[in-house]
Every structure is written in C-alpha cells, then in structure tokens.
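Lecture notes, structural biology module. Today: joint structure prediction for complexes of two components.
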Amino acid sequence: VDKILIIKIGGNVIDDEAGLSSFLKNFAGIKERKILVHGGGKLATALAEQLGIKQQLLDGRRITDKETLRVVTMVYAGYINKTIVTLLQSSGCNAIGLSGPDGNLITARKREHPTIDYGFAGDIESINAELISSLIRQDFTLVISAITHDRKGQLLNTNADTIAQQIAKALSREYETELIYLFEKPGVLMDANDNTAVIKKINPAYYSHLKEKKIITSGMIPKLDNAFEALGRGVKKVKIGSSDAIKELINGTAGTTIVDDK
Amino acid sequence: VDKILIIKIGGNVIDDEAGLSSFLKNFAGIKERKILVHGGGKLATALAEQLGIKQQLLDGRRITDKETLRVVTMVYAGYINKTIVTLLQSSGCNAIGLSGPDGNLITARKREHPTIDYGFAGDIESINAELISSLIRQDFTLVISAITHDRKGQLLNTNADTIAQQIAKALSREYETELIYLFEKPGVLMDANDNTAVIKKINPAYYSHLKEKKIITSGMIPKLDNAFEALGRGVKKVKIGSSDAIKELINGTAGTTIVDDK
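The predicted structure, tokenised, for the full assembly:
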C-alpha cells in the first residue's frame, strides 16, 4: 500500500511571507506523496476589516455572512491557494490548487443550528476520493483550500482541520494515510508557555486525563478530537507540530504523535 | 477529430449575477466539448477602489502593481472562478477551475517595455496543451482564469482574450478548435450605436477596409487581431457575439464570424 501524508497548515505559516516560502521549499522536498490543506489566516480578517465587514467569531468559528464568504473565497481559494501553487511549482513540485467545487472535490451542507445562524458555514458531506486518487496517480501534488460547496450552486466556508481529517479518512481505504497538523507550537504542550514541554505521545486515556486537568486548552480540543476520530477510521498516524520542523515531524523526532492504542 | 469550443466571457457577463447564472445554465447545456476562459470585470476595479489602490489603465491594459496583483488574483482566481465552477456543478457540468500556476497550465513572462512599467503583467510563454487535453479526456470542463505565473514563483496578470486565443491555437494540433469571444454587443457592428447592424462575416481584406474607415473602434482591434492570428495558426473558426445568444452563435445564426479566406 502506498503511503500518503495529508498536511494542514494554519495561519501562522500563511501570514509570514518569508516563513511560507521557506516552509514550501521543505514541503516540495518531501519524498512521500503528499497533499497540502490550508485555510486562511489573518489576511481574510484584515481584508474584511479594511472593507468594513464586521467579523464575528463563535467558539473559534467565523460567522460567515454573504460579504464574509466573498472575502474568504477571494483570500483562501484565490490569493493563498495560487501563491502556494506558484511557489511549489518554482521548487519543482507539480502542484495543482483546488477548492471544494472543483470536480466536486468536497461537498458540504450549510450548518443548521437551532439558535445560532452560522451563515455560509459548511459541514462536510462527501470527499471525492476517486478524483483525489486519480490526480495523485497523475503525479500532481494537491493544494486544497477550505472553500466547499453544496452542489446547488452555493459556496461554503469550511474548517480546514476537518477537511484534512476527512480527506485522510477517505484516502485510508486506498493508502496508508498520515495526518499532520502544523501550527505555531512545537507540539501539544504540558505548559502552554514552555515550548520545550512537548508531549511526545497522547493516547485516548491520557487525552481524557489532560482534558480533566485542563492542561489542554480549548483551541487544541477540536484538533485532538479530529485526530482521534481519524485514527478510529483507518488513518494510521496523526502528528501535531511546528511547520519549521516538518522533516523531524515526518521522521518522528519532533512534535506530538497521537495514537489509538485501544 | 473531436471538436472543442474555447469560449471567453468578459466583464458584462461576470458583473451581472442573474445574467451570469443564466449564461452558465446555457453553457452547461452545450453538447460540444468546451473550455471557459474568464477575466475579471468591474469587481476587481471596485475592490481596488474600496481598498484605496489607485488603478491605472494604459491602452485598456491594467498597470498591475503588487497590491493590484493581489486584488486580481483574489477576484479572478478566487471569487469569480469558484463562483462559476459551483454554478456549473449545480447544472450538472463537471467543471474544474484552474489558473496558470496549476499544473503549470500557463506560463508567462513579465512584460518588459523600454519606457512603461506594466508591473506584474504577463505575456504568455507556453500553454500546457497536454494537461488540458488530459483533463478533457477525463470529461472535465475547464474554467480558466487570467492569472498566470513565470515558473519562478511570481504570479502574473494576463489578458484573457489572449489566453483564450493561445489555448485555441495550442489545442488545434489535436482538436478542431473554435474560438468564441462573448461580449456586451451582438457582434462586430457597422455602427457602434446600432445593435442591429451586425457584420456577419469579416475576412482580412474587409478588416483592413473597416479599420481604414475607422468603423472598428480601438477596443475591438485587439480582439480581431487575436482572431486573425488564431486563424493563421490552425484555429478553424472565430466567432464574436453576445453571451445571451450563445446557442445561436454556436449554430451560426447570430454574431460575427471571422474567416481567413486567403
């Protein structure tokens, strides 16, 4: 079975021009098959502010009104996606940038909630694993933005962590999949203020303990929930760490590895 | 030999939400293989103005400074491209939206001029006909934005009319290609103020005559020059007309047909 890495980058990598360029050089050099998933970062928020569109966050999720949807589509599917693709191409990596509507790659449905109107936020319905697999066999490196659609002509804003997780799950039928979340810290930390306090391994029992002791903060919980759900559905490994240490994270000498040793 | 239509839409189609949606329903219904090429329209100019980025036009070409490049990349490759793709998908057309850097689809070089700095404007160097042809064989309908790249990590803004023409030329080795320019008029007009005065056919001799008599205005000249160059390089037919009459334009009962009857 072929191995594939599904790597998700966050705002900290995207927002720093020099850092992004250096990360993408390292990414292009990864020998394994790989997919890059990205969201937006501060650029979308900054653009919305410049345009006088008020931004509302709820539990870390952006309330996506019509104007905000236009902004995130422009920033994620346009500027960031194409900037990443052209930088990868310049490093000899044959990247192709896609969003949910392209070839019906990712479909979602508008989130319904009894009391909160999330606007054009989409929860994933399906991943077109056949299309992804076919493009991988044609030696493309996919760069996927967090913009999805509902098949009825509506674009939707979707959480990039969840997209990465769902892609990893969908591909695990055909590939040995490894899901890698890159963020601003060297891994999951015992002490949020101490970057040397990386937890090397977390299993479900230890995760419960860390949550109980409130060592794991609210921002990490969705990431770790995503990780354990992926492991329960065929994904071989989940790793969390810094984009600066992508090579060490892949070879297992840095970051946090999430394991399901039930 | 299979036939393929390369259809370019302009700002008049893109700027009108209802018009775009109705055009795309008609486009999805076209039985022949087809590729859609689009630029930007007024949205990019409006966004640049909102952001306080001064826009300079020279002979109808936008001077693309760094900030303007970011705006056109967001609008063309992001918002417009993905809006078109999701609308086509909702009409049962398996569209995939690409820009120049994707799979190295279109490479360009930054325009050099002895006295004018066009900024990040790109003149086309190569079209990846092999990639286009391969995606066509996989039954995708390509939607291509006017953003290209230089293979060295730089995105560039490129004229969409020229992209459509170069794609038609590049595909004419393998397909019977027809190039269709859609704009706000029913065709090339004898009198710019009379929409019934459509010129049915223009050949090179007649074109010279029309230019001499100043019947053809400056905006039409690059389009017609593009058309004749395409005909000289293997493209079978070039048609110019209104997006409302796409079906009639294809079956030859509306618009202007450009022919090279040397």
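Point to remember: The mean pLDDT of chain B is 94.
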